[in-house]
From TrEMBL:
The chain crosses the membrane at residues 6-23, 35-53, 73-92, 104-121, 158-180, 200-217, 273-291, 298-318, 324-344, 371-391, 403-424, 445-466. InterPro entries: NADH-Q_OxRdtase_suN/2, ND/Mrp_TM. This is NADH-quinone oxidoreductase subunit N. Residues 123-417 form the NADH:quinone oxidoreductase/Mrp antiporter transmembrane domain. GO terms for cellular component: endomembrane system; plasma membrane. It catalyses: a quinone + NADH + 5 H(+)(in) = a quinol + NAD(+) + 4 H(+)(out). Its EC number is 7.1.1.-.
Amino acid sequence: MTYNFAAILPELILIFGEPVLMLTASTMGARATKITTWGTVALLIAATIAALVGTEPSSAGPLFGGLLSADPFAVYGKVLIFISAIVAIIAADRWFGGDEEHGPEYPVLILLATVGMAVMVSSTNLITLYVGLELNSLAAYILASYRRTDARSAEAGLKYFVLGALASGILLYGISLLYGFTGTTSYVGIANVFAGTEDLGLGILFGLVFTLAGLAFKISAVPFHMWTPDVYEGAPTPVTTFFASAPKVAAVLLTARVCLEAMGPAIDAWQQIIMFVALASIYLGAIAAYGQTNIKRLLAYSSINNIGFVLVGLAAGGEQGASSVLFYMAIYTVMTLGAFLVVLNLQDENNQPIEAIADLKGLSQSRPGMAAALSIFMFSLAGIPPLFGFWPKLLVFTAAVDAGLLVFAVLAALGAVVGAFYYIKIVKVMYFDEREKELHYACGWLEGAFIAIFALIVSPLGYVLIGPLGDIATQAAGAVL
């Protein structure tokens, strides 16, 4: 058994830093909020650096008896997760402000969730998959219900917990079936069984289906999406910002690794499932968003819609499909974080956060910079050229066509046209509707810098990243094939 602790240095930094921050919080009380906030940010920055420069090429193989891997695929996921967590923590510090319910435990909960997500993208065994996923989920349930006196937050946490527990049970049942019929929990071992068996048998197929169903809940894919709009709306906006970025990356990359590494030889068995889920997510996410009046609910359906496009690339399989998934998640994370940063920094005349789409009327008149940034993010999420959000969609469609899934790719592309309406509706409200209330922009310089940087990345200027990011995504994809 290989014990290479240098390969898991990012996780070790977070794990050993967490008790220190918790002790600080318990001894200093509410006064420690700033300390734990910026202490967590410092730990995440250190973990990001460790992931980028501290992993040796020899660490890419299975470690700790095949439980984990520090390959380029895992490093790619960790960097996206850590950066998303940093942005979410910084945004929350100002949004909560002097809220009496905001305590020093908030960033520590995000830290614990981040450790779970790092394990998720590094796992090469069904056991570590489940441990990482549950560590992330348990912290997420608490974060969703973080505002104890807010009925919506309590409801969001309860719904998330109940449905999450059900999904975890489904996933665990699928894992037990796969173990029972393959005799192993290792991704490599399962792949070897699939490769050496012409007829998978009913038991293995049931295990495959239940495992994918459990993972579909975690990525908010139809028909296991029902928790997403309610949780996104009810949770505090900084928490929603976190949910829409880091956990989404972790869950998608985990699903991709399971499908391509563990179940790769059985692509004929799971490809049809992924294709159905992809189209269902694209069209339901597009159509259900039409009547939404709350921008957080609209962005929830947007996330469901975008997950459908990600699954188009996954259904294609192979290195091209895998690299398109990784490329898409990087740009999607930037677009989503940017959109939520604009929303959570807008307040009405009473200094209350705004959530209704109607509150954005005439934003271009009072806050032209914010209206322009949000328009860029909306058009980019819709995949309208020449904005950079068009390129990831083109990559997943191209991967599907090259894999011989032409009809599937055409249907998915039509779904992109259908979904463009509600993104354009936001822009129309900001630029063409008469202003009804004065909105204030309560944003710190750091958050403003994030918004500006993200807007530049998803603008046409972002096309300079196609080559470097594409090479990195292709290298990371090759690690799981």
